[in-house]
Amino acid sequence: MMRSAGKLMMLLVPALTLAGCGDNGLTEVREWMDGVKKETRIIIPKISEPKLYVPVAYTGKDQIDPFNPNKLLAALAKIRAESDNGLKPDMNRRREALEAFPLDVLKMVGIIEKPNMKNALIQVDKSIYQAKIGNYVGQNFGMITKITDTDIEINTSKRSAMRFSFYARLTFVALLGLASSAFAQSNAIESITANQQGVNVIVKIAMKNPVSKPPLGFAITNPARIALDFADTSNGTGKSSSDIGMGDVRNVNVVEATGRSRLVFNLNKPLNYATTVEGSVVIVTIDGSGGIATAVNSSGLPVVSAPAAQTKQNLRDIDFRKGVAGEGRVVVDLPSSQVVVDVRQQGQKILVDFMKVGLPDMLRRRLDVTDFGSPIQTVTTAPQGENVRMTIEPKGLWEHSVYQSDTQLVIEVKPIKEDPNKLTQGTQGYRGERLSLNFQNIEVRALLQVIADFNGLNIITSDTVNGSLTLRLKDVPWDQALDIIMQS
Question: What DSSP string runs through 148-171?
Fold first, then answer.
């Protein structure tokens, strides 16, 4: 018992000691906290006045969502409305004959004109149509706005300008930067360069692929031009015209049509040309002297062909014929259509100079044609330096005219009956209204129809009338033009 009581006393003494220590520590903490509260000053910041905002009404609730596809359609409609300048085709007018054909099948073959009127001759297949300024052609409401001796300008509903090139199909000049339709040609013209060698102008035409033969070409005298046709070739130069400005060569136009491209050299005067091919380069030599052109290679040396070509071409024949009205005609067969001929009246004589051609011995003669009863008395032909001169000597009152069809040159001298009531004499027997004709390789039957329509005449053409004609007449009576055509 005594041991248990001792153990209990030993446990109670530490417990009482711990209890006393615990109370003293809590009291100190409470006193510290009370002291801190008394010393700490509480500061509350002042809240600023709220900012006033002015209400704004939202006005875009009725607009199209920017992410809605209809917004693009509305913008395009607005652009069309702003750009519309009122150029709209008249859908109520009566369609014209040439509106039944697309432009690429139309071909300008010439013009016919009289004072204050100029009509273009447009060929479709074998039919010839007349068109004047204000007429419509093609299937896109194209209206003719200008007619010259060489082309027709057309304004279409597509707001572009199109032009028929003389003897060519179609030239397209994009005014709005529109690209022309590309054709799948096997070759292309890549560049055109020119240099001058003496009086000659040498033009080098670089092609995309090698060329097997020189291009076909022709020359016209008024206006003075040289045209070269490149078959199955496109225009890869990126431009339709290039300035040359050398000698009498002003510039060159590049015309691309269906299946071919045409180069047209614009000259100050008629000149002859020659072409040769070196691989993928076509070299054109334009002779500035007016003589027969000789082709040169890329080194500027004359091209020697085998067998050697004759250096100078000769006149082929000279003939005299009398017309039914007493007129005399001197008919000269030229070696080529490129021969330059200068015809002029000097006093009571007619001088005809054939440039850069020869005269065979059999044609070096003096023809006495007095017995034929025409104004022409003698025709004398003789060499004169590098040229040939023909001297025609008529008598009495007379007038002369000159026309050429391909390689045949005709100098016609008509007698004039003196009329004392006239200050000047001439155009004996022809009383028709004056007109001008300029056409290339047109069928005679179609041409007669054009003259009849143009002058309001009735012409009956036999089935035996056929053939084609190339002719240029300036300001002559229409009945004289008809007479010349029938005699050609």
Answer: -SSEEEEE-TTS-EEEEETTSS-E
